[in-house]
Amino acid sequence: MPPETFAGILADLAETLDVEIQEGRKGAIISPEVITAFMKDKKPPPLPALQPSSLPAFQPSSPPTSPSVSTLGEVAASIGACRRCELAATRTNVVPGVGALRPDIMFIGEAPGADEDAQGLPFVGRAGQLLTKMIEAMGYTRETVFIANILKCRPPDNRKPLPGEMEVCMPFLRQQIAIVGPKVIVALGATAVEGLLHTGLSISHARGKWARFEQTPLMPTFHPSYLLRNPAAKKETWADLLAVLKHLGRKPPPRP
To answer: Does domain 44-248 have CATH number 3.30.200.20?
Structure first.
């Protein structure tokens, strides 16, 4: 193998490990399939980014008729009955998501952790407490936004979701997005960006760049768990959230 090829493989593997660290994990299992893909110079597709100027500013209008809460309840019931992957055997509770119908923002993370698995609610651990502060700094409350994850069940030891697990769960999330009808999606972390946009870009490269999930504007930013370990990244994350507020025609409330 030429030295330059081997160096390229190492660089790609290093970026993969960097994503794992950003998502709050201390290590990663690199499968032979992943290494083979790197050796074949298989690059992830670019993020379908949109410049902020290409996104029309949000214009208030009469909201469409909101579906009944029972519709979201039916999705939650389907999630609870799901046995299509191995996570059903290890979960304590499913974690469908919570929040308002027709919110300005829907926050989507990676997967439930231990606290979420125990309570059946998303983002209730330390990362969830930080997310609550981020939401409040934007002028919202948890009750006025919607919060969910790519996966609805906790992976063992909080490992990264497997592609097959994400594929099984995505139909549930698509149903939720269609029912909830957010004006903007905020994708928290690389796994959320991967699941929603089908790109392997690290969150460092994806954050701050507008994209779309189907017809909904989407802003990628860092996951709160990464911010707990890297407080310096809060400045970049706040800039991303300010861009979301600008698109919505809002300003953050004065800080105390």
So the answer is: no
